[in-house]
Automatic annotation (TrEMBL):
Residues annotated as domain ABC transporter: 31-291
Superkingdom: Eukaryota
Pfam families assigned to the protein according to its UniProt record, in alphabetical order: ABC2_membrane_7 (PF19055), ABC_tran (PF00005)
Species assigned in the record: Smittium mucronatum
Localization per Swiss-Prot or TrEMBL: Membrane
UniProt xrefs under PROSITE patterns: ABC_TRANSPORTER_2
Membrane topology qualifier: Multi-pass membrane protein
Stored SMART domains: AAA (SM00382)
GO cellular component, one term: membrane
Key words of the record: ATP-binding, Membrane, Nucleotide-binding, Transmembrane, Transmembrane helix, Transport
Gene Ontology molecular function terms on file: ABC-type transporter activity; ATP binding; ATP hydrolysis activity
Descriptive protein name: ABC transporter G family member 12
């Protein structure tokens, strides 16, 4: 199996023997997709790429913007894949579709897990989506955030197993020095931006996820931290997880860390294959990458935008559409595309069974965890705690004054009815 070869190649890049001893357990998953078409309705005044169709039910024309146009491909376990393309090319939309965040009724085509048709429910159980913005409670420590993620996702797990998974994730993402530091926010000092990103990744990878989807994991990070994050993602993939990341324009060092590259342009596939074959492929179709040039820069400037910047927006958009369609047509007729289609139709792994899916915790357990987290958050927020205590003491006092010696006359009753909700809204 290819994952074993990949792991063997990676032994020189990190402590592979120690990494293989980690307790993270998951089922290797190949996620494949074929003929994905996704579009969204737009306003009639929009000047973006549009297509019109007749709604049989209403007999009215509806304008839509095509986000993804007939996308086919496959992401393999044990490999780190980058989805590249200019803004608006469909990178995030593809991640949303494959992670089950968009209902299957809103797009055409199919998605498979190890050869078995997948729906939004099964995709959500085996995959984790890490958004561009790190959404975490500022009053929790790094270690507590990872522990909470594990307890929320895995049913009937012991404290010993929680501690083991947490420590493994902290080691893997190199968070040992900040594990007991609060996450913080714009007001409270906490961990750095790179540590926040690694914490959000650790929270997802520690929960039996076979597939990790990341949307711009290097956004807002300096070049050193960006390289560290992608290097750690490659380290995670070497355990057998499928790691897919949307990334805008990486440096040459970061670009070389990826195993596979998917290039999207105007919702169409321009290339999907091994990173080492990207430059030779485009050279074979007439795009020669200059010596000592970052391949990512070459793709964005010479391949996706060969005519340069046109000051006229309509002309610029038309040139992009024509160029994207030509690149897609060339790719679809290439031998590499045929090999890719074969891997979609003939998966290398056994189909997943219900035993491969992690059961969710009960609603009561979730309520208990949220209550405990909220209590800790209120107690640790030194700025908000006095205000909350003051509100708790002031509200009963004011309500008592409003209702004090009330004879329930009509006018007094009306005043009480009006003041009560206003007081509650004001104090909140």
């Amino acid at each position: 199996m290819e994952i074993l070869d990949v792991q063997a190649e990676s032994k020189n890049s990190f402590d592979a023997e120690k990494f293989q001893k980690l307790s993270l357990k998951f089922t290797p998953s190949q996620i494949s997709f074929k003929n994905l078409v996704y579009s969204v309705p737009i306003r009639s005044k929009s000047k973006k790429k549009e297509s019109e169709h007749i709604d049989p039910a209403s007999s009215k024309k509806k304008k839509t913007k095509i986000i993804l146009d007939n996308i086919t491909g496959s992401f393999m376990p044990g490999r780190l894949t980058a989805i590249m393309g200019p803004s608006g090319s469909g990178k995030t939309s593809l991640l949303n579709l494959l992670s089950g965040r968009i209902s299957s009724s809103k797009f055409e085509g199919g998605i498979w897990l190890n050869g078995r048709r997948a729906d939004g429910g099964s995709l959500g159980l085996v995959s984790r989506f890490i958004s561009q913005d790190d959404i975490m409670l500022s009053t929790m420590t790094v270690k507590e955030a990872i522990e909470m993620a594990i307890e929320f996702r895995i049913k009937d797990i012991s404290r010993e197993e929680i501690n083991r998974r947490t420590n493994d994730a902290i080691y893997t993402l190199e968070l040992e020095k900040c594990q007991n530091t609060i996450i913080g926010d714009s007001i409270t000092t906490g961990i750095s931006g790179g540590e926040r990103k690694r914490t959000s990744i650790a929270m997802e990878m520690a929960t039996d996820s076979s597939i990790l989807f990341l949307d711009e994991p290097t956004s807002g990070l300096d070049i050193y931290t960006s390289h560290l994050v992608v290097k750690l993602l490659k380290k995670i993939s070497r355990s057998g997880q499928t790691v897919v990341s949307a990334i805008h324009q990486p440096s040459s060092d970061i670009f070389n860390l990826f195993d596979d590259i998917l290039i999207l342009s105007e919702g169409l596939v321009a290339y999907f294959g091994p990173q080492k074959d990207l430059v030779p492929y485009f050279s074979s179709i007439g795009y020669q990458c200059p010596l000592y040039t970052n391949p990512a820069d070459f793709i964005f400037t010479d391949v996706l935008n060969p005519l340069g910047f046109d000051p006229v927006q309509n002309t610029r958009q038309l040139n992009r559409l024509i160029n994207s369609q030509n690149l897609s047509d060339t790719w679809n007729f290439s031998s590499q595309a045929k090999i890719l289609n074969a891997s979609v139709e003939n998966p290398l792994l056994d189909p997943l069974t219900p035993l491969n899916f992690t059961s969710s915790v009960s609603s009561f357990k979730q309520f208990t965890l949220l209550t405990r987290r909220a209590y800790k958050s209120v107690y640790r927020n030194k700025l908000a705690l006095p205000t909350r205590l003051g509100q708790s003491l002031t509200l009963p006092l004011i309500m008592g004054v409003v209702y004090y010696k009330s004879n329930l006359k009509p006018i007094e009753t009306q005043i009480q009815v009006i003041l009560t909700p206003l007081l509650i809204i004001y104090l909140k």
